[in-house]
Amino acid sequence: MNSIERFYATVNRESVDRPAAWLGMPDIHAQPALFDYYKVKNMHELKLSIGDDFYAVDVPYRSEKASAIYAAFDWYMNGSDVDAEDRTLTTPGCFCDAEEIEDLDFFEWPDPEKYIDREECRRIVEMAPEDKVKLGMCWSAHFQDTCASFGMETALMNMLANPEIYEAVDEKVMNFYLRANEIFYEATKGKLHAVLIGNDMGSQRGLMLSPQCVRDFIIPGCRKLVEQAHAYGLKVIYHSCGSIVDVIPDLIEAGVDVIHPIQALAAGMEPQNLKDKFGGKVSFCGGVDTQDLLVNGTPDQVRAKVEELRAIFPTGLIISPSHEAILPDVPPANIHALFEAVNRLN
Question: Rounded to whole angstroms, what are the CA distances from 134 to 49, 96, 124, 237?
Fold first, then answer.
């Protein structure tokens, strides 16, 4: 099997020759050690050397205020691009005192048409080898952005006390992402295989908001984003850190193809529990713990974890670190051990 065949078989929970695997997106501060270990010069060379099945690309977004699409909104009205490296949802945003729809009118909403270069979209996707799964990192984190626009405490209070104003901001954010994704999908039509979208809504012990609030305020946007991606023939990997076991049925109903990540130390997210509850209904990505194992474990312990995951999920799991951003505290030797164990054929 090549990587693309392996990916589609995993999504469909069909037999595979070995598990599909994904490195994730190493943090900029973790990259030098990985480059040195693998004797490569940049992320492009690392993606080709690491031994996984994916080639992930960010949507190329450049404006006067932002260098990444997940930082497109200047919620702090300072043009600082603060979310690019220091993303926060708790700092009061520019709508923190808004009570009426009219109180939102002062904000300058960005136009993705002006800041996404179609040629650059094509160029970065075409850098991927033909046999790799081309994964667009679209994010489209409308819940996180809406929370940032108010500050999370105010946003969550508005969900209950003033839902109209919360939904008005969320609709604007959703329209931005739907248009941005359309530009990206049209520019790369026939070249992408999958996209990653998502919202962080889980903590270590459970959801950050009630399951009903997730259903009312997050799942409708999820469904729109999934339907849009599916219309272009793309599989959808949906991301949320933390324990989201209580709303996995809702994500499945919304059409999500793969749940990312299996954050195995979060409550209810143990691989065996997920396989028992949802193994015939959706596929997963993750499972190799980045909170303790990859940081403090030995290469042999990492290999043992991969073997355990392979036994629980003979298919239906893309084995990957349990956070998409590998941090500097993860020894490269443990990443090597992960992929060494994954690449053993059945």
Answer: 16, 39, 10, 12
Give the C-alpha separation, 317 to 54, whole Å. 14
The pLDDT tens digits along the chain (346 residues) read: 999 999 999 999 999 999 999 999 999 999 999 999 999 999 999 999 999 999 999 999 999 888 899 999 999 888 766 555 556 778 899 999 999 999 999 999 999 999 999 999 999 999 999 999 999 999 999 999 999 999 999 999 999 999 999 999 999 999 999 999 999 999 999 999 999 999 999 999 999 999 999 999 999 999 999 999 999 999 999 999 999 999 999 999 999 999 999 998 999 999 999 999 999 999 999 999 999 999 999 999 999 999 999 999 999 999 999 988 899 999 999 999 999 999 998 8
How many whole angstroms separate alpha carbon 137 and alpha carbon 26?
A: 13
Which residues face 20 on adjacent strands?
318
Residue pair 30/37 in contact (Cβ under 8 Å)? The answer is: no
| Distance, CA of 33 to CA of 36 (rounded, Å) | 5
* Cα–Cα distance measured from residue 144 to residue 169, given in angstroms and rounded to the nearest whole number: 11
185 Cβ contact partners less than 8 Å away, ≥ 6 residues apart: 136, 192, 228, 229, 232, 234
CB-side exposure of 207: number of CA atoms within 13 Å? 15
Q: What is the DSSP letter of 25?
A: -
Give me 339's structure tokens: 């992929």
Give the C-alpha separation, 57 to 78, whole Å. 28
Beta partners for residue 116, in sequence order: 61
Helices 163-187 and 219-231, axial angle in degrees (round to 10) = 20
d(CA 38, CA 45): 9
CB 120 within 8 A of CB 136: no
Measure the CA–CA gap between 124 and 128, rounded to whole angstroms.
7
pTM of the model: 0.96
Distance CA 329, CA 326 (A): 8
CA atoms of 11 and 213, how far apart (whole Å): 28
